Structures are given as C-alpha cells and as structure tokens.
Amino acid sequence: MKKFYFLSLMLALALQATAQVWDGAASTTWTNGDGSENNPYLIETPAQLAYLSAQVGSGEAFAGKYFRQVNDLNMGDKEFPVIGKYDKSTDSQTQQIVDNSCYFKGTFDGNHKTIDHLLITKAPEATGSIGGQPVSLGGVALFACSTEGTVIKNVTIGKHSKIAVEGEVVGSIIGKMEGGLLENCINLSPVSASTMGGGLVGATTDASIIRYCVNKGTVNLAGMVCGGIVGQIEKGTTIQACYNTGAVTSNYVYCGGIVGLTFDNSVVKNCYNTGKVTGVANFLGKPHAIIGENDGGKAISADNYYVKELSNVDDPLATDVTEAELKANEILEKLNKNLDAKSFVADSKNQNNGFPVLVWEQGEVTGVAAVQTSADIALNGRSISGAQSLTIYDLSGRIVAKGTNITLSKGGIYLISAPKQSTLKVVVK
Predict the structure, then answer these.
(1) Cβ atoms within 10 Å of 280's Cβ, excluding its own
(2) Which part of the chain has CATH 2.160.20.110?
(3) The whole model's pTM is what?
(4) Residue 375 has pLDDT above 80, yes or no
(5) Cβ density class 78-87: b for 16+ within 10 Å, e for less
(6) What is the pLDDT averaged over residues 52-68?
C-alpha cells in the first residue's frame, strides 16, 4: 500500500509538472486575485501569462493593478506574443509625436519563479510604415515597453529561452523603457538583435530605474549598440547595483559590459562586469568593460569595477581589479558604497564562481529568535519591526500585514518587503 501511494504521488507530481508546458493558447480569465495589492492576480500557468499579453495588447494597461507569478512557467518553445507594443513615431507633416503604444502600467512580481523555454523572434505589428510597408518601431522582450508607474521585479528568464529579433530594440525582460522600475531580475537566456540590444533591456529613457539586476546570458548584436544589462540609456536613467557575467559581442563600436551607450545625465553606479566584451575599435571609440561610450561625457559612472583578464578590455570610467580582489570581502564595501542599503554580499553558496552576488540571490531563510535580518528590519519571534513601513506576504503572494511594528498570529514562511531593500524570506516560529 505504501509503495502504491508513493508511485501515485510521483505520478501526480509528474502530471502536475507537465501540465505547466504552454500549448500556445491563452487563458480567458484569472483564477485567483482581484488585482489589488493585498490580493494580486496570480499568474499560475503559461496560459495566464499569454492572457496578460492579450489583454495589454488590446489596450488594457492595468494601471495600479498587481500581478504575482506563483509557479515556474515552461513556455514550450512556442512563439510568445510580447506583452504590450512599442509604437511611437513622429508625424512627418505636423512633427507631432504619435504614440500608439500599448503599455503595461501595473506591477508584475515574478516572485523569483522562472520563465523558461520562452521564444521571442517576432516584434508586435506597428502602425508606422515606410514606402507603404509596415515597420516595427522597436521594443521586443517579455514586456515590449514600460512607462511611468510600471514596476517589474523578481523576474527570472531561464537559460533554455531564445530571444532573437532582427532590426529591433531588444532585451530579455523589457524592450524599451520610457520610465518605470526594473529590479531584482536575472536573465540566463541568450539575446541577439541586429540594431540595439541588452541582456535585460534594449534601451531606456525618461528617468527609468534598473537596479539589483543580473545578466548571465550571452548578448550578440549585429548592429550599433550592445550592453550586458542594457543597450542604450538616456534622459536621467539610473543603473544601480547590477552585474554581468555573460559574453557581450557586437559588430560595431558601442559595446559595453553593462551599457553600450550613455547620454544626458544618466547614472551607472555600483556595478561590476566579468563577462568578455568584444566589439569594433575605430575612430568612434572602442568597446569597454562597463560603459561602451559616454556620449558627450555627461553620464555619471561611479564605483564600478571590472576584471580586465576576463572582460578582455579596459574602461577609463571604472576600476580594474584582479579576480582575487573581486572575490575578496573587501570589495563588498566598495560595491555597496553610498547605497541606501546593502546590495552585494559574498558568494557564500558558490552561486557565482566566488564573485559577489546580490542579497536577493542568496534567498536566505532565517528564523532564530532576535536575529537581525537586515539593516532596519528586525525579527523577534513573531514580532517584526522596521524603520520604514514593511509589507508581509505569504507564499501565495497575498499581503498578510503592513506597518512598522507587526505581530503575526501564526508561524510559517513569509516574505518581507521594505522600501529600497531586497525582499527577505524568513521563517517565523
């Protein structure tokens, strides 16, 4: 009887796992949640992710709504229609900007679950045309574009995915950022494009923020601008506490381990690169380990590091360190310099060949009475206190409590979110 039960259990688990492979169809509703912060829409299946794409593509922006991914998703290596559409141009007669884009304006929390076997090789159809032929105006990734109010966090793109698009602005998670926040995300997939591309984001503008993000996938570009994290940044974009280990290759000059090209008072700080950077050196410049080209010299580069033996190129705007120095504990203070909270920690679990990792990557679970879980967040039994307002989630993504001093009614595993800090997982006894 015990053996039969065990086999039945294994069969049930196997069926559950295979049930998550996408068949190419979209769902027609959300199973759980009402889209509020306390009760977000739950993305439980690949079909529900496709349903989100269909809804945003039809013009539903979900402004102020919340989504949370609760399972790993296998997208079945089927062409996925990107979420949204970037379709922005200038009218040749009036010189007015025409924006027919479909933006996602809500909050998407990937919950550090993986989206894998994601296949994106096509751009959304655009309304613009040249010579009567329709053209796409860029913005290809899981999310085509973002704008003010968009929050995308805790997303993982798996290594078996493929994102390869001709003639576009391409990333793994966001194609074109025109504002919004991307944080605590990692890409393991190869990304390739013919015009402009980055490991996570194709291009940014309008005070976009990218922080605590990682690229480990290869980035290959046949065209102009290529970066490990993002291709091109401008107009007050901030890239903070990110790192790249993937190889970055371009057939053109604007190629960098973190960013290919920077403009207009943008900021790249507290980042590092160990990925090999290969590009073309000519009269326009040459590839660099952190920033490929700082156009006009207006962008700020601060507290950035690279290993020349690994990147194969130098960078006058960053600090060259040895492999041993980047693995030593002393580098952590430098990488965390002038940040609101500790972002980098030692690679205690050997997740990154001994190089520093971000706090959220460790996924540490604590539960010892009176432990200090992080700066400004303390756990004492079932009492949780913080210097700033805390949000406590259960593992389904539902908000359990909010405030600066919280006493939970029962023990369990909880997620604690605080402003300007990575989400913590704790065991409350």
Answers:
(1) 14
(2) 19-327
(3) 0.84
(4) no
(5) eebbbbbbbb
(6) 97
